[in-house]
Amino acid sequence: MKKWLLIIGLLIILIIIVIFIFIKKPNKYVKNYFEVIGLTEDHFYSTVKKIYGEPLDIVYLEDNNNYFTAKYNGIEFFCFALQDGDATIRSVHIYNSEFRFGKKKIGVGSTKKEIENVYNKFEKIGDTLAYGFIDGFTWLEFYFDGNEKVNKIIMYENGP
Questions:
Q1: 121, exposed or middle or buried, with CB in 10 Å at 0-12, 13-18, 19+?
Q2: What is the model's pLDDT at position 76?
Q3: CB atoms < 10 A from the CB of 59, how many?
Q4: What is the rounded CA–CA span in Å between residue 102 and residue 50?
Q5: CA distances from residue 4 to 12, 13, 16, 17, 31 in whole angstroms, order as listed
Q6: pLDDT along the chain (160 residues), means of 10
């Protein structure tokens, strides 16, 4: 009887430890970051136009007209033009504080401390005030102003 109580007690302790690990350090903070900005099905420029309409401006790279940035109010989509007339989204640059991620609602305007509390571990990007983090299949870059508040977020699917 004591042996069974000991085994059950150890199993309960193990379950509590596993639950604590997943609560303290989530493997994935947001299931799909692109859903937050409205891209639920695919990551094509034609979908962006359906959601956001015509851009305020389109800027093409000087040395390669296949790459362009479609600029909207507080959000920009860096795209690669396809032969069929559409384009794939390579990255999304967010400047608008309306886009919030996860249960702690992080985004532009969040503090560096808030970002650290959510992601636990992230990498400094060069000599900038920016930090990167991989969450599932999304690479995120958080850029901070002099007051350590997020002023830009860049999202890449499958890394930069």
A1: exposed
A2: 97
A3: 13
A4: 25
A5: 12, 14, 18, 20, 39
A6: 74 72 56 87 90 95 89 95 90 94 90 86 77 84 93 84
Token pair listed for 53: 């309409």
Residue in 154, 148, 138 with CA at minimum distance from that of residue 110? 148
- For domain 30-157, the CATH superfamily is CAP (3.40.33.10)
Q: Which of 122, 125, 121 is nearest to 143 (CA)?
A: 125
Domain spans in the chain, listed from the N-terminal domain onward: 30-157
In angstroms, rounded to a whole number, what is the distance separating the alpha carbons of residues 135 and 80? 23
Is this model's pTM higher than 0.85 or not?
Answer: no
Which of these, 151, 154, 158, 150, lies nearest to 116 by C-alpha position? Answer: 150
Interacting residues of 106 by C-beta distance below 8 A, sequence separation 6+: 100, 114, 115, 118, 150
